[in-house]
Amino acid sequence: MPPTDSIESLLKEERRFHPDPTFVRHARVGSHHAYAAMHKQSLDEPEIFWREQTVDLVWRTPWKTFSEWKLPHAKFFVGATLNLTESCLDRHLTTSRRTKAALVWEGEPGDSRTLTYFELHREVVRAAAALTDLGVKAGDRVAIYMGMVPEVVVAMLACARLGAPHSVVFAGFSAEALRDRINDCGAKVLLTQDGAWRRGSVVPLKAMADVALQQTPTVEKVVVLRRIGRGETQVVMKHGRDVWWDDWLSRVGPGPSLDHAKAPPAFDAEHPLFVLYTSGSTGKPKGVLHTTAGYLAGVHVTTKYVFDLRDDDTYWCTADIGWVTGHSYIVYGPLSCGATCVMFEGAPNFPDWGRFWSVIERHGVTVLYTAPTAIRAFIRAGDEWPARYDLSSLRLLGSVGEPINPEAWMWYHRVVGKERCPIVDTWWQTETGSIMLATLPGAVFAKPGSTGLPLFGVEVGVVKDRGEDCSPGEGGKLVVKRPWPSMARTLWKDDDRYLKTYWDVIPNVYFTGDGARRDEDDYLWVVGRIDDVLNVAGHRIGTAEIESALVSHPSVAEAAAVGRPDELKGHALVVFVTVKAGQKAGKELKEALAAHIDKEIGKFARPDSIRFTDALPKTRSGKIMRRLLKDIAAGGETQGDTSTLEDLGVLAKLRATEED
Ligand code: 7RM
C-alpha cells in the first residue's frame, strides 16, 4: 500500500503484531497493564513518577516543584540546578562504562573511530575549555555547521557543558539558509569543517560558510575541522577569525584550564540548551528553543523505554545530527542512558544499497532507528541487498519522521526484522523534544501504520476546531492537552509567534499541526500535516519557504508550492510558477530555478516538478488556492468547492501545463 492510501483504508488494517514472548520476558515494561499503570501515574502523580524516573540523572540541586505553567512560559523541575553533560558523561566514569564505547563512528570512505565514555568526556572538556578561550560564555549562542563526524557530538556537548546554547544547522542547507539561522540566533562562534563527504564527493562546507559569513555580523570566531584534508577542498582561512580545530584544541593542553573537568558549572533547570530551526507554515523558519532539565528528562526516559536500551546494546539511529532526531536520539538520550551509539557519516546507497546492512553486520547493531523514506527506498532497491548480510544481531526496530505505511511496515518486519523484532513507530516533533506516541515494545501489540499510544506524561487528544473531542475513528486535529517536560519553551525571541502557532489555535491545548484519528483501542493514526508544511523524504519544509525562495529569483512573478503524494519520499514537491513579463518560461529557466532553490535552501528542497502557468488559482481576496493546485499536481480532478475561485478558466489552463 503506498502512502497515498486514505485513512479509511488504513483504519481497516486489522493485523496485530504481538511482541515475541522472549522479548516480553525481558522487556522493561512487559504488559499493556504495566504500561497503563505507569502512564496513569505519570499523569496523576507526576512528582512521584518523574522523581523515580530521573534518579539516574545528576542533579546538583534537587527540584522542589515539578512544574509551573503560565502561558507562554512553562517551567519544569523548578528550583533544580544541573550540568546536563554530567548526566551524559561524568556519571558513567565512575562505573564500568568508563571504558565502554560511547560512539562507534564509521566514515563514508570506510574509516572508523571509537570513543569510549572516558575519551568522549575528555574531548568535551577540552572543547569546552577551548570555547571558553574564544570568549564563549554561558548564554552565548554557538552555530554548528557540520556533518556526521564525532566532533559534532563533541561540539554540542561542549556547548552544553558551558551553558552556551548551540544551533546546529543541517549540512545540507545552503549558505543563505545558514546565514539566516546564524543571524536569527545571533551566534558568536561558528564551528564547521572543510568539507563533508556526500556519496563520494565533497560538500565544501567552509566555502559555503564563508559566503554566509559575509553577512553575519555577530560571528567573531570560526573553528574549522579538517575532515577531508585534501588539496581539492580549497579552504581560505581568514586571519584573526578562523582557526583550525586541532590548533584550537591544542591551545588548551592538559593543565589548569581543565580544572572544570571535575566541576563544570551548574545551571538552572530552565537554562537554554539549544535552538533548532524548523519549518513552519509561514516563510521564516522557527527557532525552537529547548531548555535543560525538562528536555534531558524527556529524552532520557523515552530512550530507555522506547528502545528498551540495555548496557549490551549497540544502538544505531540513522538520522542526521542537523535534525531534532539526531539531537535527541543520537546524542542526549542515548548518552544519558550510557548506551553505545553507532554514528554513520554516509548515505544508505553509497557505494551501493548494501551499506546500511553492512554497517549492521559489522558493528553488530541490536537496535535500529530509521525513517519510512529510507525503508521505501530500500524496498525499491530490492530484497537482495539486506539478504546478503547477517542481520541476526537486530532485536528492535524503530521508525520516525512520517507515517509508516503498512506496506513499508510489513517489509521492515519481514525483511529486516525477520519477523522476530518488534517495530516501534514513534511520533514526535522538533517542538516536542522527545517521543510522544509509540507502540511501546514488549508492552503492547503493533498495528502496521499506527503510531500507538501516548508515552509517560503525555495526554493527547484528537479534536475538532473548537477543541471538542472527536469520536473513535473520526478524523481531527492532534493536540496535546497538558504541558510536558521536554516541550519547546518558546521560539527564539518570538514568544508571540510561539503562542500563535501552538497555543492559540485551539483553546487550552497545544496544537501539533497534524491530523489524526484515534481508534477503538485508543491507538493513534497520524495522517500528516494539515498546515502548509510538507514532509519531503523526512525533511520538514514549509511551502512558504519554497515560495519565497522562488519569488526571490528575478524572473519569477509568483509561485505556489504544493506536495504530491509520493511513494518514495512521502511528498514530492510540485511548484507552479508565473514569470515576469518579458521572461521566457522554458527548460533553461527550470534549471535556473532548481539551482536557485539549491542555493537558497538546499538540494533536498529541489522541486520534483516545476510547472509554468499564466495565472494561479486565487480567491477574490487574492489567496492562492493551494487545495486546487494539490489536486492538479496529483493528476486528478479538482475536488470540492471552487466558488471562491476568482477565475474558473485558470483551472483548465493549469491542467494543461506541462508535467515533466
Ligand atoms: C521527529 C520529527 C515533525 C512532523 C510531525 C509529523 C511527522 C514524525 C511521525 C510523523 C506520522 C510518525 N520531527 N511525523 N514522526 N508522522 N508518524 N511516526 O520528525 O519536527 O522534523 O517533524 O513529522 O507530521 O508533525 S520534525
Characterization of the model:
This protein has 660 residues and is of the alpha/beta class. The strands form nine sheets. It has a nine-stranded mixed sheet, sandwiched between helices. Strands 7-6-8-11-12 form a five-stranded parallel sheet, sandwiched between helices. A four-stranded antiparallel sheet has the order 23-24-26-27. Strand 28 (533-536) and strand 29 (539-542) form a beta hairpin. Helix 6 packs across helix 7. It starts with 6 loop residues before the first helix and ends in a 5-residue tail after the last helix.
Spatial sequence of strands, sheet with the most strands: 5-4-17-16-18-19-20-21-22
From the N-terminal CA to the C-terminal CA, the straight-line distance is: 25 Å
| Level-2 CATH architecture of the largest domain | 3-Layer(aba) Sandwich
Oligomer: single chain
Based on secondary structure, the structural category is alpha/beta
CATH class of the largest domain: Alpha Beta
Total of domains: 3
Share in β-strands: 15-25%
Give the tally of β-strands: 32
Helix content: 25-40%
Q: Largest sheet, described in full?
A: 9 strands, mixed
- According to CATH, the fold-level topology of the largest domain is Rossmann fold
Which term fits the overall shape? globular
Mean pLDDT: 91
